[in-house]
């Protein structure tokens, strides 16, 4: 693989996404972004981490205008259960004057870059409860440090040209089609690494190491109503290989877009260019499967993936709960090698956000433009 793929040599451009980087420097990319004027402008950070002993840390924060945050936190503690942040499955959080300007998150949840593309910190101090049992509450203090010396994968420049071209060729072309591609583009990059967790749960202290992915997305607007479905897989193997692979269905742009990459044992990264997973054949009723398989190709090799789900949870995103996201905690086998991680399956939701939640939002939210 060519080493210069991941060197930021391309000039900053307003037309990022056409093989051009969105920013000149790593520091500009891996920091909190200024939100644009659109009511659905977004700047989002997400971590999906796990280990072979069944620990999971899944956390996401998406900054929106007016100090609104779509945020959530999950902690799978093997001898306790699956802990969830207080408002889930709702993800509407609201920042206060006490929240630091350069950090992501709200209501006790804080994520921030300590060293661009190298070190991030995750903190939470507050209540959580067992999934499905809101009365079974725990006082939680979480401190995690995620670090990586692996290259990041920039979806603006590093996606496989063959798979992108094939996806575009499958769509009916028009002036409006290419206008939509440009209008709804978002910068998105991912990077695998490891995190050291210190977790105070009631009176007990846990110290755990987990592995997994961090991603960062920002855009002038993200419209969840345009996403029909997606299925993403984040995998760490005993051999040291790390994988992100999935399928996205966003009919306005791509009916079927293959996304993903693989880190070899020595840290080199190659893009995924074929994947056999077919969304209409799996979980089309809104319930993702618990036991399934598929194959993908990357770097001239074929990988056969077996997925075995042992726990699941879900949340909703947006003022109208436009998207339903199901997190599947899973064990994997890839070409006979054992692994761990999670899958994320998204569905378009048209049932709306419950009235009691709308009524519990801060009064000032009634007057803002929600798009």
UniProtKB/TrEMBL annotation:
This is Uncharacterized protein.
């Amino acid at each position: 693989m060519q080493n210069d793929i991941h060197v930021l040599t391309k000039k900053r451009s307003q037309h990022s996404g056409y093989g051009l980087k969105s920013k000149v420097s790593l520091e500009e990319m891996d920091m909190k972004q200024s939100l644009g004027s659109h009511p659905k402008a977004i700047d989002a950070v997400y971590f999906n981490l796990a280990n072979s002993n069944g620990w999971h840390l899944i956390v996401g924060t998406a900054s929106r205008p007016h100090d609104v945050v779509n945020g959530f936190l999950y902690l799978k503690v093997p001898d306790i259960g699956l802990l969830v942040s207080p408002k889930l499955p709702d993800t509407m959080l609201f920042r206060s004057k006490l929240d630091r300007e350069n950090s992501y998150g709200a209501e006790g949840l804080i994520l921030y870059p300590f060293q661009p593309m190298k070190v991030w910190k995750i903190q939470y101090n507050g209540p959580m409860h067992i999934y499905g049992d809101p009365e079974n509450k725990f006082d939680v203090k979480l401190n995690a440090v995620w670090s990586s010396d692996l290259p990041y994968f920039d979806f603006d420049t590093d996606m496989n040209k063959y798979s992108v071209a094939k996806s575009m060729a499958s769509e009916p072309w028009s002036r409006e089609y290419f206008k939509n591609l440009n209008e709804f583009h978002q910068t998105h990059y991912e990077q695998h690494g490891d995190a050291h967790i210190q977790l105070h749960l009631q009176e007990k202290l846990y110290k755990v190491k987990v592995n997994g992915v961090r991603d960062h997305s920002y855009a002038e607007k993200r419209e969840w109503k345009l996403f029909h479905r997606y299925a993403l897989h984040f995998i760490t193997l005993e051999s040291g290989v790390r994988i992100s692979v999935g399928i996205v269905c966003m009919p306005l742009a791509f009916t079927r877009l293959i996304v993903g990459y693989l880190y070899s044992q020595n840290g080199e990264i190659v893009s995924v260019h074929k994947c056999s997973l077919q969304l209409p054949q799996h979980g089309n009723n809104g319930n993702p499967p618990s036991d399934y398989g598929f194959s993908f190709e990357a770097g001239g090799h074929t990988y056969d993936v077996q997925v075995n789900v042992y726990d699941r949870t879900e949340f909703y995103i947006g003022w109208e709960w436009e998207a339903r996201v199901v997190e599947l905690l899973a064990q994997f086998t890839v070409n006979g090698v054992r692994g761990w991680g999670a899958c994320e399956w998204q569905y378009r939701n048209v049932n709306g956000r419950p009235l009691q939640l709308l009524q519990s939002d801060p009064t000032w939210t009634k007057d803002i433009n929600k798009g």
